[in-house]
Design the sequence.
């Protein structure tokens, strides 16, 4: 450790990066997995909540109120709430991360489906679509741009929040940030903080861009319209 | 579980946990002091340029970029990164690194929301006020700022809730505040303190949100209220 610190000048040590590539790769993957689980589970839960809210309008206010309260609770506190129950585990991290996606996703799903033109819905009903067919074949595809916009915000926010889970023994790239903090005043420490931060931002941008790409793949009609 | 909650209740019931430097009262005051200073400073830096640039319709692309990049930056990393910066500037540990990190994180969303609010004022109104011969200053103070006030106040509310949330992380870089209970609880492996800290932090964030909502309701005319829904929120 000490010879590495001496070999590097200033606050950043490329030697540390070079000799820890495996570890950096593993933590990056862990970061992506923690994010993917949170966003997928969050999406399923939000779809169910949105279905309830769309079917029984009166439940929308309380559902978004609860999601809003969850969103207001600071992340460290939300993780800390569950530590006494579920321990310093991945489950604790995911409960918190999923909770944060709900407000954005439910709001966008409901807004997206509400935004489908009534004429389209009536035409579909006139053509004999069942309620379920209407939802999956007409409303959901037309609401996709708004839903994907929510998904992008949820994914990018989750990637940032995953770093905080380092404090409950998870963390992905947040692990480097926390370890760097504990190794303060050494170039090895700052190097780890910078690596964790830069990679976390890079993942967020990469995921955001990929979701835009997926959106275009999933909606060929929007692409055609844009070209016309 | 019941037993655990009983321990938490006993912790809150113990007068020794309320008084002194590391007591609940002092930690709450520290938390509020830091959050208020950071929110006020961010407002001074963010709001005037946002309102002016939106009035002149300059910098729309920058606004979009600021939201997207701002969201991708992990607040945890920023709090930690500002520690060496603060030390290099000779400001040391504790208050300053957290304060600088909070301002850095709060300025972009506050700027964006205020900008969007003013730029979103009905262009008929803006053109009419110009046609009536109002100066730039009059247009801003008598038309655009009042019309955008719900969005600007909502931007302040969202930013202050975010600041209160992120100030919790200041406990990691030597600041007190309510985050101290959670961070120390983790270090001591004392789940009662961790949970009590979580209750306090969550409580303060919710109280902040409610307090600002009340102020919004007081200040914003009823006819303008639903516009505040458009505000961008940020988790921390």
Sequence:
């Amino acid at each position: 450790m000490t010879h590495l610190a001496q070999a590097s000048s200033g606050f950043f040590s490329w030697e540390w990066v070079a000799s820890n590539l495996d570890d950096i790769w593993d933590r990056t993957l862990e970061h992506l997995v923690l994010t993917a689980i949170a966003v997928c589970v969050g999406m399923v839960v939000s779809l169910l909540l949105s279905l309830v809210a769309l079917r029984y309008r009166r439940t929308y206010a309380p559902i978004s109120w609860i999601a809003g309260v969850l969103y207001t609770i600071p992340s460290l506190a939300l993780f800390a709430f569950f530590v006494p129950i579920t321990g310093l585990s991945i489950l604790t991290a995911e409960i918190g991360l999923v909770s944060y996606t709900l407000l954005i996703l439910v709001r966008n799903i409901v807004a997206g489906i509400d935004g489908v033109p009534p004429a389209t819905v009536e035409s579909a009903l006139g053509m004999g679509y069942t309620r379920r067919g209407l939802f999956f074949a007409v409303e959901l595809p037309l609401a996709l741009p708004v839903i994907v916009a929510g998904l992008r915000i949820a994914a990018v926010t989750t990637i940032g929040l995953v770093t905080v889970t380092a404090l409950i023994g998870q963390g992905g790239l947040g692990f480097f940030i926390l370890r760097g903090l504990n190794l303060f005043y050494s170039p090895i420490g700052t190097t780890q903080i910078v690596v964790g931060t830069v990679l976390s931002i890079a993942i967020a941008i990469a995921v955001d861009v990929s979701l835009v790409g997926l959106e275009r793949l999933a909606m060929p009609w929007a692409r055609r319209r844009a070209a016309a | 579980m019941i037993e655990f909650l009983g321990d938490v209740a006993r912790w809150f019931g113990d007068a020794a946990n309320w008084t002194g430097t590391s007591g609940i009262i002092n930690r709450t005051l520290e938390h509020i002091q830091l959050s208020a200073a950071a929110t006020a400073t961010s407002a001074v830096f963010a709001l005037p340029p946002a309102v002016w640039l939106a009035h002149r319709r300059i910098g729309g692309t920058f606004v979009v970029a600021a939201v997207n990049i701002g969201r991708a930056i992990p607040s945890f990393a920023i709090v930690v990164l500002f520690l060496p910066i603060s030390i290099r500037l000779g400001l040391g540990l504790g208050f300053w690194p957290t304060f600088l990190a909070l301002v850095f994180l709060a300025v972009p969303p506050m700027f964006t929301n205020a900008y969007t609010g003013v730029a979103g004022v009905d262009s008929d109104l803006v053109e009419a006020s110009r046609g009536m011969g109002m100066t730039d200053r009059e247009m801003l103070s008598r038309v655009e700022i009042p019309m955008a006030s719900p969005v600007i106040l909502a931007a302040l509310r969202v930013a202050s809730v975010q600041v209160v949330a992120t100030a919790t992380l200041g406990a990691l870089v030597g600041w007190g505040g309510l985050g101290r209970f959670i961070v120390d609880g983790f270090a001591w492996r004392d789940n009662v303190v961790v949970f009590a800290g979580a209750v306090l932090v969550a409580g303060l964030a919710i109280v902040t949100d409610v307090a600002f909502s009340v102020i919004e309701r007081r200040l914003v005319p009823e006819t303008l209220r639903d516009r505040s829904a458009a505000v961008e929120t940020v988790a921390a």
In short: Residues 36-227 of chain A form a domain with the MetI-like fold fold (CATH 1.10.3720.10). Chain A is about 80% helix and 0% strand. Residues 1-8 of chain A have pLDDT under 50 and may be disordered. The first helix of chain A runs from residue 2 to 7.
